[in-house]
Amino acid sequence: MDSKFYADLSQDLSLMLDDADDYNVIIRTGEGQNIKEFHAHSSILRARSPYFKSAFSTKWVTKKNNMIEFKKPNIRPTVFEIILRYIYTGEANLSKQSGADVLGVLIASDELLLEKLFKHVQDNLINEQTNWVKQNFVLVLHTIFKLSSCKKLQDHCVESICADPQPFVTSKDFPSLDKDILYELLKRDDLQIEEAVAWDYLIKWGIEQTPGLGSKNNDRTKWDNNNYEALKGTLSRFIPLIRFVEISSADFFDKVRPYRAVIPHHIYEEVAKFYYKNTLPKTTTLPPRVGKIQIESMLIKPRLANIIAVGSKEKMDITNRSIKNISFDILYRSSQDGINFNIFRNKCNNQGPCLVLVKSQQSTIIYGGYNPIGFTHSGGQWRNTTESFIFSFENNEDIQNMKISRVNGHHANYAIYEQYNSYGFSFGNTFFMSSDQRIYFSNTGYYDSNFSNVSNPYFNSNFYPEEIEAFKITIS
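Structure tokens predicted for BTB domain-containing protein (476 residues):
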């Protein structure tokens, strides 16, 4: 029977490290007043670290009296001590280490190609150093976004910030945040921040980042045209990421209007027209920021679900722009339940507002409809709503070209047709699932003139669906 005595091996190698009287490597770490010399064995370093194996076979190192001398000024002694003990023993006790040292171990293990240690340290920062990471988000972000292999920690930090951005944007380090990281955060739809607050802190960040401004010149009443032009240059990438239509008219007047000079003219004019005439901008069409959306769909991804959900509120209540929670609960899926109008009705009737998604067998286009009043058991009845709409996307990656046709205001009484004994769903007999297992498009005139774009290429035609999904949708 094979026996393995890893614990004894680890202990013996630990003694070898602590009493390295036969060492042949001297490694000097740190810089300035914080320098420490470590003694090690080249054979162990080579065996455990691809970095050292490569380094010892090149001219990176110097030899003096057959002793290899190696300098690592970028690694603090406290960090290298953890690294070296891991190399010798396979152990890494991080429980009593400061967050700064654990982050240092992450950087060093990446550089020294210690893959298993790197993964362990990344998990430690996520699970054991949560508070320290939150208190030092800017430092951590600046560090990990330089490490391509650190995606797990990157995602953790970004998602944590999106869920609760207030402590982050109000921290003293926020004005020094790298511009590329700020861009990635602002473009996210799940950044849970009021748009007026996002604007405030973008301006503060821009002032600190702009030469000639900053803490010594942050009073805009004393700025000249050159100052405004400089700030405009700093913010040019970020202005299109602000959802201006989510800012109240009072905040627009008090907070945005004073910085009109830094906003591109066409964007400002579109936003001003929105506040004066309730006309949605054509250029800045980003949806409102919402919470992270989970949807178990075979047809669309969460970002498309976000756009659809926003479409269900857009322009219906122009004063209520705050959508923070969206949930999609699957009611029906044809690949599991069968393409059957009776099954659709049994699963979807009396469930409240519903989202229907359909994909044909011959196309990548996703078709759908939003029913804000839900399906019922009513037979042969037309039902009134001004908020239903039908839509299409070119494919499940299409977040720019949602084609939408809303119910015609003059025909709101015909928005939804209830015929449970022959139709699965029917949006005004314009877009419907029939008992013959086909999906039909028919220009009844009950939905607006964009219907032809939505129904392309099945205008006044039909198809066999590859998949049909229906979700109960809740927006708050």
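Residues 302-475 form one domain.
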